[in-house]
């Protein structure tokens, strides 16, 4: 039986050319910063971009962007995302609030599905999703529900982190999900292990982002964030930014 | 109604003087390394110590310790943990294997409860638990099921990480869980924000562990791990290592 929500959700996402899920098997690898910078860079190039924060373990892109309290979605046959810094912006934080009470498993899935079904993105070249970390139920739900989802995998040079990320890659490959490539974040040396292993897996190694202690001070200020080495490095990556026809 | 599993589990844990849950609201903060070093340091002081890896999002203490394949629990009216490097050692990895297939939500809870019910720890001064990150269902289950659990909270200096950790702290306080204190891991500068905020919350700031790039090379070698600045710093922390009577 086909899940009826799949068609509702994908009708909602119909006006979007590419859906890029920024994802990591491991938490704390800088996924949210990379997702935010990617969205800002694409917008700067003139693309119509949406940023969608679905990281229920701690939505943080609103903090990184410095979205002020008043900027909120509008109800109009669903929810229309506000525009902030050139991005159409939507976050789980608007749905569950910024409180400590955790969602139980089923509620997380329901919240994700609800947000996917009600958000009116309109026409976009790119929707960048800040994914929940790991490969638990919510990630599997997204994989199952969102057609045309493509993965950008973030890791750090840490062997422990990459071990976990490799499991995620194995799972995505098993599910035949398209993977754009692997980004090595917070690089502090010249080790090539992650690059070598990535290429051995038949995946594209997009490059390394050097650890930049100055990023911390740009949190809440997208203009300054785009001046960091994270942004200048990422702007060199050969992520095809031409939306597929 | 009282959950009957609570009494079974706590009977199993009856011979243990203190149960320390090493925990973080945020992934990737070095929780598993800190938990492993804590267990090794306590054992070195002459305590009887167990290390229990319940991080279903990617159990890694067996990699940090370098536990060889043959070292496995023995079945004997339950599971008897093998002893490795002076620690009684048990991990979810023995239960679910090291494969990429993720457990669905209910299975995670069942696996945790099953492991807690069958493991024969015997008499210990300390059981150090490497907790799942975040404040999702499995953490709530552990809080509910394990009496006498005390939390050691790990964060990094990153404001984004600490924002998420603060939510976890708020939740634990609401649940009236004892918190031993907060450890700031991977410190690279002299910023005092985390210390100031921790003390404002009425919690003990145990100290900062400097970022040590040499830790990576000690993965799999506990003797070398104890020679890092992570271990020398942690040995100075005023975590009361006297088991409560």
User: SSE order of chain A in H/E notation?
Assistant: HEHEHEEEEHHEHEHEHEHHH
Largest sheet of chain A: 8 strands, mixed
Low-confidence stretches of chain A: none
- Strand order within the widest beta sheet of chain A: 5-6-2-7-1-8-9-10
Give the averaged pLDDT of chain A, no decimals: 90
Radius of gyration of chain A: 17 Å
Specify the structural class of chain A: alpha/beta
Q: How many strand units of chain A?
A: 10
Describe the structure.
The structure is a homodimer of 245-residue chains. Chain A has 245 residues and is an alpha/beta fold. Chain A has 11 helices and 10 strands. In chain A, strands 5-6-2-7-1-8-9-10 form an 8-stranded mixed beta sheet, sandwiched between helices. In chain A, strands 3-4 form a two-stranded antiparallel ribbon. In chain A, strand 5 (83-84) and strand 6 form a beta hairpin. In chain A, helix 1 crosses helix 5 and helix 5 (105-118) packs parallel to helix 6 (137-145). Chain A is globular. The mean pLDDT of chain A is 90. Chains A and B meet through helix 5, helix 6 and helix 7 of A and helix 5, helix 6 and helix 7 of B.
Kindly list the characteristics that best describe this protein.
homodimer; 245 residues; alpha/beta
Offer a concise description of the structure.
Chain A has 245 residues and is an alpha/beta fold.
